[in-house]
Amino acid sequence: MTTYPPGRHDFTRSAPVRLWEDGFASDPHRYYAALRAQGPIGWAELAPGVPAYLVTDRRAALDVLHDQETFSHDPRAWESTVPADSPVLGMMRWRPNALFADGAAHVRYRTTLIDVFDLVEPHDLRARVHRAVRLLVGRIGPRGGADLVGDFSRPLMALVFNDLFGLPDSHGDRLNEGLGKMMEGGAQAAEGEAQYAQYVLELIAAKAERPGDDLPSRLLDHPAGLTLEEVTWQVFLTLGAGYEPTANLLSNTLSRILGNPAYYSTLTSGARPVMDAVVEVLHHETPLANYGIYYARRPVAFHGVWLRDAVPVVVSYGALGHFAEREATGGRHPNDASHLSWGAGPHTCPVKQHTLLLVTEAIERLTQWLPDLDPVLPRERLSWRPGPFHRSLTALPVRFSPRSPDQPGVPS
């Protein structure tokens, strides 16, 4: 059993840093600085009356991510302590899937997910992205202007993920609406959770009746023998974790590229890879900023803090990337992974390569078709969606020379 130095602090009587405030969306690093001033672990609030320990130190974060004897992903003890209408329950309540499981159950669920995603070949995913980009450029190209969040990043992910999960393009708006409400964790969170759950239930019922060449059908047919309920909750996890954070990674990266003209010119000329911008975003504006959620199995002294059980211990990927950049000595290669945005340990993101391929292909294809994208607003005037868990732009308005995917000189 891992042991840690004695705890000196008990935050339970302190005023928490409130991550549900509007100010957190506009300036999260100010809130992270206040938490970091408390030490490796700070006392935060995810919603009114929902406290949490926020881990802002890399060493402490790695201990949480790797120490399965001390920390669990199972939130059921915590669930019994919060109101049934808490706006964060949609993102944090227990479900029988890989995210909320430990031990053998986690290995079983995770293995099935890895197996079915491994069947998605890179060339196949690339072709799906190209089809989606071409369709969206066909819509926005002739207009000479667009919102790269609402007109590109989010609908592109809806197109690609509905394609992978065996649904028609027309279902994208339902997916976007339900997940968007749930992720923000506000007054409409419960409604969004219900909408998204209904979306998934209808999908699984359709695939159980008529299987196809898609991810849910492969899960239903996997030799692990998952029940219909287990398949439903794996799809609830993977479709949600794939669509929303990847859309945000795409729009945040586009924002960072377009906000720096010199950077943009090196990318469009091929002198600098898109991956550099993606890694910068994973350091500074990672899409799942505060969603590495664990629970101490028992009260424990941990990095100078007495942790209570049944209180979320949140690995803050947003804070970790920010402080890692500030604390680094010497130069940093852009592919350095100290941001930890993919997690670490048993719950490391199992589809990292798929995500990176999807985002980089989408950006490269978009900038080939629309090479003169020009942001309407300076980056500091862009607004961000509220919510403690994510880093998500409200809109990214741009202008460009009107083009059609069918006109000469546009890539096929």
Automatic annotation (TrEMBL):
GO terms for molecular function: heme binding; iron ion binding; monooxygenase activity; oxidoreductase activity, acting on paired donors, with incorporation or reduction of molecular oxygen. InterPro entries: Cyt_P450_B, Cyt_P450_sf. It comes from the Bacteria. Gene3D superfamilies: Cytochrome P450. PANTHER family: CYTOCHROME P450 YJIB-RELATED (PTHR46696:SF1), P450, PUTATIVE (EUROFUNG)-RELATED (PTHR46696). Belongs to the cytochrome P450 family. This is Cytochrome P450. It comes from Streptomyces aurantiogriseus.
